[in-house]
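Let's sit down with a protein and look at its sequence and fold side by side. Once you have written the record down, we can walk along the chain together.
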Amino acid sequence: MSVNGVAFSSNLVPSSKYGIKCPNMMSAKKITIHNTANKASAKNEVKYCRDNNNEVSYHVAVDDIEAIQVVPFNRNAWHCGDGGNGYGNRNTIGIEICYSTGNEDQFNKACKNTIKYVAGLCVQQGIVATKDTIKKHQDWSSKYCPHKILDRGDWNKFQQEIIDEYNRITKKSGSSSASSSSSKSGSSSSSSKGGHYVYFPANQGTWRVYPLNAPSLSAKHSIGSINPPKFGGLTYPVKKDRGGWDYEIETGSYGRVRVYCAPETGAKVSWNGPGNWPNVQ
């Protein structure tokens, strides 16, 4: 699986550690960028976060190869140093860029992956990437972080590159907007749409849907189902990514609901528009 071209996987903290690592529910409003200040890969960074019992956490580590999630996006993490009720800790997704004291080439590649990944994450979370929503750790507390980016004097450039990439994939920049507008007159306009979509194939049967306030995505909390076989498959824009393959979509029969779309279910997910998937809702 990938997000905006960056390999992505999850290795989430167990729920038994939520009280330590991510005790509060959260609806993310902004993104906070960090540097790890070590030489560890994303896999090792995430393993360390999962294994220890410190009240220090973040949501995703990114290196030169991949991005790995460790805390669900609908829970807070302790990464901003602004206290138990601080805006950064309670409302922002924490992104750790790896190798900031290691190999320069690996760090540079990790930064490039972070730009692409964070732009895609903003699309998933319904966050418009701006100078107000893409923040650095230092904005929330006095900590000099992301230290490597700050040492280089590159924060403003890095922040703008995320915004530019977000605009590119959402087709909000000038030339992209023109391209998007002209394609709408063609017969295949759905294939030109950017953004985050989920496809439910016709051969996988009906799909349970859940209310937004469901305590879990188990069958007993389902409020009904959609019927992809009836329509030859169904494609929906993702309104919000809650993490752990838990997505919000808008349906005609049930309104805005949650669906579970892990790979083993047969659902397919795209961060670059629906392509040729049928019946975009």
